[in-house]
Amino acid sequence: MKRSTFFHFATFGVQTILFKKKAPILGTVIITDKCNLHCKHCSVNNITAIVHPYEQIRREMQQLYDMGIRILFLCGGETFLWRDGNRTLRDLVIEAKAMGFLIVNVVTNGTYPLDLPEADLILLSLDGDKQRHNEIRGDTYDIIMENISHASADNICLYMAINQINKDCVRDVCLTARDTKHVRAVSFNFHTPYPDTKDLALSREEKAACCDVIAQMMKEGAPVFNLKSAFPYLIDNRFPTPCHQCVVLENGKLSTCGRCIDVPGLCSQCGYFFVAEYTLLFSGKPKIIFEMLYTYLKYV
Ligand SMILES: C[S@@+](CC[C@H](N)C(=O)[O-])C[C@H]1O[C@@H](n2cnc3c(N)ncnc32)[C@H](O)[C@@H]1O
Ligand code: SF4
Ligand code: SF4
Question: Taking the complete model, does pTM exceed 0.85, yes or no?
Answer without folding.
Answer: yes
